[in-house]
Prior knowledge:
Layout: H1 41-54, E1 61-65, H2 66-73, H3 77-83, E2 94-95, H4 101-108, H5 118-122, H6 124-131, E3 134-136, E4 144-146, H7 159-162, E5 163-170, E6 181-190, H8 195-213, H9 217-245
Antiparallel strand pairs: 1-2, 3-4, 5-6
Helix pairs in contact: 1-8, 6-8
Amino acid sequence: MLTDKLAAALCAGALLAAPLAARAEGGDAQLLRAGNDVRNKASLQRGARNFMNYCSGCHSAQYVRYNRIAADLDIAEPELKSNLMFTSERSSDTIRSAMPPGDASAWFGNAPPDLSLIARSRSPDYVYSFLKGFYLDPARPHGVNNVVLPGTAMPHVLADLQGTQRAVFVTPGGAGAGLPVFEKFEPLAAGRLGPEKYDEFVRDTVNFLDYIAEPIQVRRRELGVWVMLFLVAFTAIAYLLKREYWRDVR
């Protein structure tokens, strides 16, 4: 299940964006619905594999520990150490990037951000749309741009899986009437994964990022239901008690 080894993929740049909105800040592309489910452990296990193989080469996740991931996702420690722990020896360590910060800054102009809280601060929909939003742009240093975050410094590290595509922009009202607006993607070269498989790959990765942003969120929501039921029951009891106390007050 978690058998892939670390791929030397470059995952630099920033997953910077606006909070969930109709359009992404800085871009004109509609955000896509990620549709991830942090209760799906199989998806989270695949997402952990994806993150460690394609993201941890450049990005850290300094607010989550390997042993917490193993406990929450039902991953045995031998499997954890052999398939996920590429930059640490102890399961109590947090996820560290394999790339020295100085090298990242020299290669890309700035250090790749820590991704512990990216899904919480920018929304899963944003991250999902960002990972699907790369297109060929010869004018950019790495030959690609992104409709969600124009001018991103991050190369398209998943191009081998997704393939390549070009972005079609249209000018509302005709030429000279305004700035071009993104309309659609046109595929150019197929990747190792078909569109459906690539969508699943990205969704699993986003699911894992959503999970590490708040590992307790499933438990919190479950407890929240019981807390609300308690408050409703307590309010009813308090109201009946108030009526009893004030019964003889005129």
